[in-house]
Please model this.
Amino acid sequence: MSNELKNPGRILRAPENFIDASLSKAITTEGLNEERRSFIRKSFLAASAVVAGGAAFTQSAMAATFQGDPNILNHTEYDQALGLPVAANPYGVPSKYEVNLVRRESPGLTQVGGASVAFTPLQGLFGIITPSGLHFERHHQGWFDMDPSKHRLMINGLVKNPKVYTMDDLMRLPSVSRMHFVECGANSATEWGNVAVPTVQYTHGMVSCSEFTGVLLSVLLEDCGYDKKNGKFILAEGADGSGMTRTINIENAMDDTIVAYGMNGEMMRPENGYPLRLVVPGVQGVSSVKWLRRIEVGDKPYATKDEAIHYVDLMPDGQQRQYSSVQEAKSVITSPSGGQVLLGKGFYNITGLAWTGKGKIKRVDVSVDGGRNWRTARLETPVLSKALTRFNIDWVWDGSPAILQSRAIDETGYVQPKMNQLREVRGSKSIYHNNAIQSWKVADFGEVTNVQVK
Amino acid sequence: MYKLNKVILAVSLAALSATAYAQSATYGIGRTATPQEIKAWDIDVRPDFKGLPVGSGSVSQGNKVWDDKCASCHGTFAESLEVFGPLVGGTTKDDMKTGHVLAMSSGSEPKRSTMMKVATLSTIWDYINRAMPWNNPKTLTPDEVFAVTAYLLNLSEIVPDNFVLSDKNIADVQKTMPNRNGMTTKHGLWSVKDKPDVINTACMKNCQKDIEITSVLPDYACDAHGNIAEQNRHFGAVRGADTLLACNPHPSVAELNHTYNTPYKASTSKTSPTTVGITRPETVAPTLAEVTGLDLLKLNKCTACHGVSNKIIGPGFKEIAAKYKGDNGAEARLSNVVKNGGGGVWGGSMPAHGNIKDEDVKKMVQWILNSNK
Model:
């Protein structure tokens, strides 16, 4: 892990940063509406100039009349006044300046809000825990804020003793607290054929990560005396109108699946399944059934709507992969990322997220030249099984066009594939399980856009 | 006192025995479910039709239920893709013989219908039974579910017009499902132990000679997601691109002003800088968004049935605005319809929403009536 920033303030040209003339040309001309883009270039420079001039930070200005930043020289509206008392917000809310980073829908993706998705704003988040209010939302028939005193969990089917548990019961049982990602199987679905959306919120925002607290499903299945010989699958069912149902194999169910009520230290948010949801670590999000009310143990899979009509992966030969569940290793640079503009040449911290449904992330490599050369990024701790892992790497942008990519490697040795490698095997109609390397193009005027490269 | 001690002793003994059980993973928590409770909740139907209740329904009965409860979202012939994907279409008599829907691989159908994809008839029965109609699920009788399923099979020309589907013959119909052989579980995504099907290697240096950009955001999608400048912070390492400007080939003066003011605030100083280095834009507080009529329409789930421009179940807001243009009494009348329900005007009926505050109703109706401006 080299730290290429040896002398802050001086722009260094890293060897990895070198882009030859043909690629440089390709980046600036390929598919670009230059006339249109020139406006953002002009406005970017002009706006930068105005601000630079206004704040009088330029070298020449400093030499002549610059006395200092007015934010320092003058008193402020805060330092000569009385602030708000405690508990003015009994349940704290984000700063009023943080209105831009919110869950958003992708226009045109769905027609009805009750069967839609709102994406997590990954472009502005830090670390690995998704704030509970920004955890992505995917509902199949709307959401409810359900009364926990009336909520029940039933376990039936191939069990010695079919049982009913109240929330009182479940919260008395031995609990675990574990950090896991939840990723929709359709995350990055829009990109199977071509680039379709502008920012990381819409390309990758159907992944979130929380600390979940609850009872291991294995505890409950043992408690009911499940049939260890014939019990090969479970059916998980929700209490909402859709009665969301998914088949989960017994290995996952008995391994690390959590019947969860807690999320990031508080109760689950209603949009995420309050008061009770299943969390099936490493498996596509639809299996983590929200508003969980029933578990049935069975000897055969159930072929429910969301595993027989949707969440099946269409292969080029017309066959559909059914019960495709595991989320393979994936990563994405969250900043700088599509739709963002760099504020000039110089140092940047490239940051992103990596995850795998098969255990821990072992390594993340980053390229700034479209995949020609790679450097290994720093993994921030903790690096946890089936959780998001944050990576960072230094980069000094010399102002020339660049293509940023990240590539995750998990503890099984699996290497995140390129888009064309994925398409060669699975075609481009699959919708689900797109874990391809994401490319962000940086134009010479600082604008970052979503591209695909070969 | 003696009695109380006895109770405590009994409880303690029970706790002790519970501890003993805990080692074999029972806790004495929860209770046995009654047969009636299991019957009430255990409604799933498996591909082998385990769980299917006794019952039957004809194609013509299904047609009636369909027109009444399903057609508004799915279209008269289940072909609509206005709200949800098409349910039928794209299957042939030949597919019924092979059990493979040809259009799944040929790509001849732009939108894959449910009947093209589904292999198991139980899936359709189970889903209609548990989740339909969309806004009133679990209200159909088993016979109605058989009938609606029969109607969908008939629209797909899998069963004849006079067919009666029942628990007795549903397994026979399964044998003719057009895509019954269309599923595979031979893939590496079922268990963590499975082998991956796509292999990349972790090359580090000079991995590739030529790098070709194969796809960029299409021009028509340039500003489809709104202004990205407003989807990033106004301070920090980067800014969001002003897509309102970037996506417009001929920005007006107003748009230029917009760009100069957000996300970068134009300084009072007009002196032009001599150099442009690493710039440090001033932090500008975004204006807090006021709750608009549209926000309220979303919050109160009006948008589940009304699109902004288009009809979903009820008319689009702009369609309403166009109809009542110049009608001064419209605000009061529409407010009344929102509060107390109404019908007939657009060929359907709207339920009452008496729980919404008057001021919110006013704001929403005003927003709707001005949505065309």
About this structure: Residues 34-54 of chain A form the longest helix (21 residues). Chain A touches chain B through 163 residues (CB under 8 Å).
